[in-house]
Design goal:
With about 400 residues, the chain is mainly alpha-helical. The protein has 15 helices and two strands. The two termini are about 35 Å apart.
Length: about 400
Amino acid sequence: MQSAPGSPNKVRAEWCNHLTAIVTPPLEAMANGRLRKTMPRECAEGREEYCATVCHLEILGRSLAGIAPWLALNQVPENEAPAQQRLQQWSRDAITQGLDPQSPDTLQFDHTRQTIVDAAFLAHALLRAPNELFATLDAATQNRLIGALRTSRQFKPHDCNWLLFSAIIETALFRFTGDCQDEVIDYAITRHEQWYLGDGTYGDGPELHHDYYNSYVIQPMLLEILETVATRNASWAELLPKVSARAVRYAAVQERMIATDGSYPPLGRSIAYRGGAFQLLSQMALRKELPSEISPAQVRGALTAVMHLTLDAPNTFDANGWLQIGLAGHQPGLGEGYINTGSLYLCSTLFLPLGLPAEASFWAQPNQPWTSVKLWGGQDAPADHALGPDS
């Protein structure tokens, strides 16, 4: 079992320190045009050429996807302000470098179908912090960014969670230009409605997979898409309450999956995304839409335990501070053929609640045990219940 947590203020400081430690190497390097020179490219044997093609856009989009809400927070605690200002500037400069065709770190949006994936996480970051990550860019960079997102249209997504990658890119284009391909969004929404399995869980395609893709991709992106584009289509607006209710239920499931020590079942592919497995729970905390039976403080405790277990293990980072493949330390065998150093930065999405002010209940409530700690400690609690079939 985890040792007793510190005060809420101390815990928030720990979160901030962990997040800044994760994203500083890639964002600082890219902001200064040094990402290609300094970024390690750990990947499966024989995948080096593929990794070299995709890893730079991958690490940028995934780093920004997690840090975006905190970058957008107007009033951070005084002790966080210097780091926030520094990372705000690096994030803008990194995007600018990536879209500058003369930069040594210019990004490739037209080389492989993987572009859909990596551009989607960048698009999600833009939607999470539109003012900080888009409005503050110069006009030339904005135009290049829009053009780059449109370039990804040349690639056809696989008929699985990848549909949401194309859809969230179109959603970002709608958010920033007022124009998008509605049919791409509608197809992704329709297919995932067909793939809904019940009790807050979607199939990744028509069949169930025991993995964390409901949290890595499906539910966070589906919510973001529907909320942004609901005004364009009455059927999308009608579906949003159902999708939200499912996300609330899945957040409850995720909270119950976190054991007393912060461990969780190492199921399925992409387990090297570490705490990114709980992006949906973190997003629902950020949205203040947690299940009524779960307090923000107990989610804070559970996610803090996950943070420490997945990021404090020896050899999680290399000697220069870059993440290495693994779940609890350096475990390169956990990396599938599509996993590289850039992929690992989806763990930043664990930290979405840093986008809440320090006065929010998530940060201000006194420490409370999460469900596993309560039940395995002998406390009584209400029974769990499945979500009804109408949702």
